[in-house]
Amino acid sequence: MPRTLHPELHRTDRIGWLRAAVLGANDGIVSTASLMVGVAAASAGRSELLVVGVAGLVAGAMSMAAGEYVSVSSQSDTEAADLARERAELAAHPVAEHNELASIYVARGLTPELAAQVAEQLMVHDALGAHARDELGMSAMVKARPVQAAFTSAATFATGAALPLVAALVAPAQLLVPLVAGTSLVFLTALGALGARTGGAPVWKASARVAFWGALAMGLTAGVGKLFGAVG
Fold this sequence. Notes:
This protein is an all-alpha fold. Helices cover about 80% and strands about 0% of the residues. It has 7 helices and no strands.
């Protein structure tokens, strides 16, 4: 009887770069727009505002790249250390490791006899891979990739930060703050929708969440800028 195959769309393999991309773009829009709104609220001119925005873009992109690389490298180092330990345990105690793997399959619902057979066959095929996947929870789809995370975050931060900069460049002087804030909220809402759609999550919930925190950040920064502008 012929097998009937149907295509399945899974999004788990997007987790690494999607997380970094959404974080970078969101941070780029929120931090740059908030910085510019706060400076504008302190009665700064357009030229000062653009200098602040460009400086924020460059500094933020580099900070995101360095932060992502360091944090994801730490995850990668931990994964490598766990794999090295597992490799040593497989060499020193193969029977105990076989029993450990079999007990995992028993806990998942297999009979002890079948679990022992499955563990034996998987360990013959790829003992380290079987233990990495089923004991440690590691897989190729969610493997830490520091360089990918760093470049993705830096690029998306710069892209996100450029959006309020463009808005500030073309906005009339008397509408600078409301236009930068308003367009940034539109960009954040669109980003939330795009990220949710790419990851298969509810669009409206993600969009509202991103817009809320962006509005809060810009509102607080504008208040601080207004306060220091009045004091000055």
